[in-house]
Amino acid sequence: MNYLEYSFSVKPSVPGLEIAEAALSELPFESFTIEDDVLKAYIQEDLFSLEDFNDMFLWTLDGFTISYEKKIVPQQDWNAVWESNFSPIDIEGRAMVRAPFHPVPKKGIDIIIEPRMSFGTGHHQTTYMMMQHLLSTPCQEKDVCDMGCGTGVLAILAKKLGAKNVFAVDIDQWAYDNTLDNIKVNDTPDITVKLGGADALDDKKFDIFVANINRNILLSYMDKYANAIRPKGVLLLSGFYVPDAKILIAEAEKYGFSLHTTLEKDHWTALKLVKE
Fold first, then answer.
1. What pTM, to 2 d.p., does this model score?
2. Digit-coded pLDDT (tens) for 208-220
3. Which of 9, 11, 78, 134 has its CA 20 to 30 A from that of 268?
4. For residue 141, is it within any domain?
5. Is residue 90 part of a domain?
6. Is 220 in contact with 251 (CB distance < 8 Å)?
7. Could you read off the pLDDT of 159-195 as tens digits, one per residue?
């Protein structure tokens, strides 16, 4: 099975790239990366519909210049492509995200992530900042939810930081499977993994709630996320650009949250909010 790689250039890139990712997210694209102001989106070749692609709202936007390139990534080359581009990520000397073929770090928390398509290896700015937030948040004996877990890297970090119960959920089958594989590799089998979205929360309650998704989804489900967080609980949000922070803070404030800390990296931002 081959994959299609679409590389998008959007001007202005802020908020153009985020808008492009939101549009593509409505189609069966499985993974996104942004590097040097280029958005790369991946989809299984047999799931791609040219009609749906051409009908995206992206093409009707005023004020943006959009171009893209397409190439086929053969399945047999996929792992080799990712492994060749997967370098260890050092989070302030306190945690290391690496592939199984990298050497074990001499210090800090060791997290092994299989280099596959799922978003969340630590290379993306938002994942890096969310790890920074988690490292500065007391997780010992806490109940943690990783919403939109991708590779499960944030759930695994929370567990290795001493979290009591960790619940990881993602709507994408590939991410779900990848997370299951990664919790085995990291010897954190007591992490609960669920395939689904906000509906998977049911009546569960958490002390720390992590959501590294896109802006539109965060806004749509903020009420459900808030309902799942205990008083004095922490909400960590990322997956959006700096200009979007204000609208997300305002939405969170409706449900009793106040801003605690903001991180920024290459136009991306990550928020730490506390429920009053």
1. 0.75
2. 999 998 888 899 9
3. 78
4. yes
5. no
6. no
7. 999 999 999 999 888 889 989 999 999 999 999 999 9
